[in-house]
Prior knowledge:
Blueprint: H1 14-20, H2 22-34, H3 44-48, H4 51-62, H5 68-75, H6 89-99, H7 104-125, H8 132-189, H9 196-222, E1 232-235, H10 236-250, E2 256-261, E3 265-268, H11 270-287, E4 293-300, E5 303-311, H12 320-323, H13 335-338, H14 345-355, E6 359-365, E7 368-376
Parallel strand pairs: 2-4
Antiparallel strand pairs: 1-3, 4-5, 5-7, 6-7
Helix pairs in contact: 1-4, 2-7, 4-8, 6-8, 7-8, 8-9, 9-14, 10-11, 11-14
Amino acid sequence: MSRGQVPYKAFMRLADFIRAHSETIVGEAARYARSLAPLAHEPEKTLRDHIPLILDAIVLDLESTQTRAQARVKSLGQDAGMAGAPDSAAQTHGRLRAKSGLQMAQLVAEYRALRAGVLRLWADKEPDEVSVVDVIRFNEAIDQAVAESVAFFSQETDQLRNVFLGVLGHDLRGPLNAILLTAELISRKTKDTPLSEVGVLIRSGRRMASLLDTLLQYNRTALGGGMTIHREPTDLGDACASEIEVLRAAQPDSDIRFDVEGDASGTFDASAVREALGNLVNNAAAYGDDGPISVRLIGHGTMVSLAVFNTGAQIPEAIVPALFEALQRGDDIRPDEHRTSLGLGLFIVQQIAQAHGGEVRCMSESNGTTFEVLLPRNVDARR
């Protein structure tokens, strides 16, 4: 070595650095977690959660070989999982943070703080030279961990929401039933001098009961129970005709037309099919224009078709699948319907059709839209 030459100092690779300073890194991450309001009073163990295991997974990832294709997949958060990751610590971290009450933005902020903390500490300890490749690989690993945590965080929050909705719907039924029974008793006692206010109260109570029934039906499906139906020999012509009369009374401003063609008998859950018909007609009234609503019940072969058509604007084909997702509402709903729509009608229709072994189709053209429910006559029916 010549005079004045600076001695060479080998820099520490990032994987070795994280392993050597893991306690410091985890401590910094825990201090940041405590700054988040939902975690402010949590014990140290909860704050640390699965961060050490996430760091272990990142170290294993940094030390593994990786192709360009694998790097791209990981940078998009689409990797099946970090190589050697113990029990997907990032996924468990996301689930537990959801249970602790964090918002998704706060979960992502945890990872942002972890990323910045590791890189800052590494740069401070190794100021002369850092590996660009290590930085890139580290960012890819963090991005993958974020994707895993967010996915499981979302699943957990959806589950918690559904449990809440189920409890809420169940607890509201008791007081609502008491209100309806009292209103109906008052109505009977004042039948000689009827009070219009009582009629409004009864109709509003029944509408609320209908909304709660729909909410509870969705809740059972969302929690994994699926749609339960009870099949028995039924003529859907009679069942649908009865429902049409109810709908005409409920929608006095709509021109609802009903036709039956062929034999519509089979083994069905008549109550569920009536609910599907009601949802489709109410949907047509909410989104269609002032034209007639046409309902056709057609029996052909081993299948029975129930189709509801309304005039109005064409639905873009690209958004049709989203119409059957829960808690979704269209943009063109009538203002008076918006207040009492949960966005569950078409979702429930699809669940009823699938529980019968059938399906729902949507055909939309410039002159209007048709929703068709296809049901097999019997459990073992085949088209």
